[in-house]
């Protein structure tokens, strides 16, 4: 009888696990402190601004970057930048200690022009700038140390209108827009409610603003109820409204010089904003920024660390990583 032999199965080939790309460190070539860095809608352009009174634009990829343009025009340190939605073209707003907001457009590759110069927009430093949802047009909000927030809107005749709201006398440090559709009529979900803003100020508070459906003017949102069992005890440095995941369920992050980040949740258009403490950090917290899905939050603090946090299914938050760890 012929002998038979069983052949051993070949050993599986080890597959190399692709490692996610690490952080890219950009030599900004600014001549002074860098105060803000913002990626555009596609994550292909990076804008930075500095006390050297300039804004720099870089083309970036996962592995490299190149300086594309240096924008000038401010007469003082530039605190913040914001990209408009690409439906309006390649547009960037910048705000400065000089009390002005400049709106820049890339008219051809590497060539930029100022399409609107709001000089002396405020009586004091303009600390933050943010564009609204593209569905409501080309509109931006600017927060100032003079205690006011300005709303700049591009009109059909290609001019810009300005409206002011009085926030608090100590100064406003941050502003963020509610996503389009964050609020809708529960009886008629297709009826989108007027746009809203949240601000953070030197009075240690956050405030909510809305555009009146009757007059079209911006007013403090009288329907916003805030649970004050937890609050900041020092200046609020940044606020960020998370992208909408479910209608009428809204989440905001705020950070402060008191070294804390609070997560505010509103479960329903008339419900209270309820805060929880994300974490007590080792240094003042300067910036908070959401991922495009609203499930992850980046936090940057005064000890030069950036941490990433993720919401768990039970409503808690856990730290995923930090730039400090990745450097190690």
Fold blueprint:
Layout: E1 34-39, E2 45-50, E3 55-60, E4 65-71, E5 78-83, E6 91-96, E7 101-108, E8 111-118, E9 126-131, E10 139-144, E11 148-154, E12 160-166, E13 172-177, E14 196-201, E15 206-211, E16 218-220, E17 225-226, E18 236-241, E19 249-256, E20 260-267, E21 272-280, E22 285-290, E23 296-301, E24 306-311, E25 317-322, H1 323-327
Parallel strand pairs: 17-21
Antiparallel strand pairs: 1-2, 2-3, 3-4, 5-6, 6-7, 7-8, 9-10, 10-11, 11-12, 13-14, 14-15, 15-16, 18-19, 19-20, 20-21, 22-23, 23-24, 24-25
What this model shows, in words?
It is a single chain. By secondary structure, this protein is mainly β. The chain has a domain at 180-327: 7 Propeller (Methylamine Dehydrogenase, Chain H). The protein contains 1 helix and 25 strands. It has one helix spanning 323-327, and strands spanning 34-39, 45-50, 55-60, 65-71, 78-83, 91-96, 101-108, 111-118, 126-131, 139-144, 148-154, 160-166, 172-177, 196-201, 206-211, 218-220, 225-226, 236-241, 249-256, 260-267, 272-280, 285-290, 296-301, 306-311, 317-322. The strands form 6 sheets. A 5-stranded mixed beta sheet has the order 17-21-20-19-18, with no helix packed on it. It has a 4-stranded antiparallel beta sheet with strand order 1-2-3-4, with no helix packed on it. Strands 5-6-7-8 form a 4-stranded antiparallel beta sheet, with no helix packed on it. A hairpin with a 4-residue loop joins strand 20 and strand 21 (272-280). The longest helix is centred in the C-terminal third of the chain and has 5 residues, at 323-327. It is globular, with a radius of gyration of 23 Å.
């Amino acid at each position: 009888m012929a002998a038979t032999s069983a052949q051993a199965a070949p050993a599986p080939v080890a597959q190399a696990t692709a490692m996610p790309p690490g952080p890219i460190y950009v030599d900004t070539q600014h001549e002074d402190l860098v105060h803000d860095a913002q990626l555009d809608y596609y994550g292909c352009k990076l804008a930075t601004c500095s006390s050297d009174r300039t804004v720099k634009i870089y083309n970036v990829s996962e592995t490299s970057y190149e300086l594309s343009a240096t924008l000038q025009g401010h007469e003082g340190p530039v605190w913040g930048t914001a990209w408009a939605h690409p439906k309006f073209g390649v547009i960037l707003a910048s705000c400065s200690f000089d009390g002005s907001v400049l709106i820049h457009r890339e008219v051809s590759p590497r060539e930029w022009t100022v399409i609107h110069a709001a000089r002396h927009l405020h009586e004091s430093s303009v600390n933050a700038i943010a564009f609204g949802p593209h569905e409501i047009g080309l509109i931006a909000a600017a927060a100032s140390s003079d205690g006011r927030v300005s709303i700049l809107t591009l009109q059909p005749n290609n001019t810009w209108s300005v409206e002011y709201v009085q926030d608090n006398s100590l100064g406003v440090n941050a502003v963020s827009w509610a996503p389009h559709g964050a609020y809708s009529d529960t009886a008629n979900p297709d009826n989108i409610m007027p746009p809203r803003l949240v601000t953070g100020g030197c009075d240690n508070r956050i405030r909510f603003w809305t555009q009146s459906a009757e007059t079209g003017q911006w007013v403090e949102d009288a329907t916003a109820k805030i649970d004050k069992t937890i609050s900041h005890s020092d200046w609020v440095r940044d606020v960020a409204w998370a992208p909408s995941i479910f209608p009428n369920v809204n989440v905001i992050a705020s950070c402060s010089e008191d070294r804390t980040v609070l997560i505010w949740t509103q479960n329903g258009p008339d419900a209270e904003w309820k805060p929880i403490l994300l974490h007590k950090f080792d240094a003042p917290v300067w910036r908070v920024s959401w991922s495009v899905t609203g499930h992850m939050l980046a936090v940057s603090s005064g000890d030069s660390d950036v941490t990433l946090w993720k919401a768990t299914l039970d409503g808690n938050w856990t730290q995923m990583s930090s730039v400090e760890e990745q450097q190690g």
